[in-house]
Amino acid sequence: MTRFLLTILLVVSLWGCQKMEIEPIPTPRNEDIFSTKQASVSDDAPINFNLKTEGVYTLTLFDSVNQQVVTREIIFGKVGPNSLKLYTKTLPISQVYLLLEDENKVEIGKTLLVIK
């Protein structure tokens, strides 16, 4: 009985000494979403963009097929990098355009978002 317990203890201790593989955590991309014509995004993804002036901006998501507005948000942007979260689970479509305009309706950036 003692020999059996020692064998079990030895097997468990050797099994516990196996090297664990740890996958590196991917670093978040901080590139400007409007620097490309098309970007792939998933739910709860950060949307990063740079602004040259501080002020009121409008972010609009609209359907890429029939050009209908899906949602529109008014934000207060600061000079330099800005970041917002994009929630895509409730979107009924898989491709939308993201449009950024200043308070005078001048287009700052536009990109096609492909939702994963």
Question: What is this entry, summarized?
Answer:
This protein is mostly beta strands and 116 residues long. The protein has one helix at 2-16; strands at 38-41, 45-51, 55-63, 69-77, 80-86, 95-102, 107-115.
Task: Explain how this protein is built.
It contains 1 helix and 7 strands; from the N terminus they run αβββββββ. A hairpin with a 5-residue loop joins strand 3 (55-63) and strand 4 (69-77). The longest helix is centred in the N-terminal third of the chain and has 15 residues, at 2-16. Strands 1-7-6-3-4 form a 5-stranded mixed β-sheet, with no helix packed on it. The protein has a two-stranded antiparallel sheet with strand order 2-5. The mean pLDDT is 85. The chain has one helix spanning 2-16; strands at 38-41, 45-51, 55-63, 69-77, 80-86, 95-102, 107-115. 13% of the residues lie in helices and 46% in strands. The protein has a single domain, classed as Immunoglobulin-like. By secondary structure, the chain is mainly β.
CATH class: Mainly Beta
Q: What name is given to the CATH topology?
A: Immunoglobulin-like
Chain-averaged pLDDT = 85
Residue share in β-strands: over 45%
SS field, number of helical segments: 1
Number of DSSP strand runs: 7
C-alpha Rg, in Å?
Answer: 24 Å
- How many distinct domains? 1
Quaternary state of this entry equals: single chain
Structural class, from secondary structure content? mainly beta
Globular, elongated, flat, extended or rod-shaped: what is the shape? Answer: elongated
Helical content class: 10-25%
